[in-house]
Amino acid sequence: MIVNNRVKSVSFIIISILILLSVILSFLTNPVSPTPWVLIAALCMMPLIKQKHIKQIKWSKEYSIGIEYIDQDHKKLLHLLNQFSIAFDYAQCEEFEREALEELVSYTKYHFKREEKLMEDYGYPGLAEHQEEHQAMIDKVEEYVAIYNIEGHDSLKQVTNLLTYWLINHIQESDTQYRDYLVELGADEFDV
Ligand SMILES: [Fe+2]
Ligand SMILES: [Fe+2]
Hints:
Number of domains: 2
Mean pLDDT: 84
CATH topology of the largest domain: Four Helix Bundle (Hemerythrin (Met), subunit A)
CATH architecture of the largest domain: Up-down Bundle
CATH class of the largest domain: Mainly Alpha
Number of helices: 6
Order of helices and strands: HHHHHH
Bound molecules: fe (ii) ion
Low-confidence stretches: none
């Protein structure tokens, strides 16, 4: 996988350099020709083409819990997940990849704690079950991080898929379950 991703990144750089060289050559050989301008436009499009291949998750109103700081947490988690997908897909620097993964895991844990505290404060009856779900997720991610520490980049595809699938499902199915209960008790009127 890392080979595939690195090959993609190197190919992208080579194509960009070739286009740039063609632009210079076109300007030198025929300065009035429209060709270099077409090539410049193609060069400008390159980052957009690359970006399009990376799966990015957009925030949607249907993910909203109605409690501002929890929605902000969820937005940040999606942002960190997107950053991680970019780091994984570009596969150019292990440090960048590891940093993005660590930030995502650490913010996920931080968010879980905040959410559990909120449920506890309002006496939500489904707290224990929700906590178990969070813990199962943390255990799974930590297991993958341990595998990543041994196998490196190759194992990360599973983490991306797991986190994307789990996070969206958890927000839509489990987090929305406490929403009505907490909003009815006025939890949406307070911020932290
Ligand atoms: Fe959540
Ligand atoms: Fe949750």
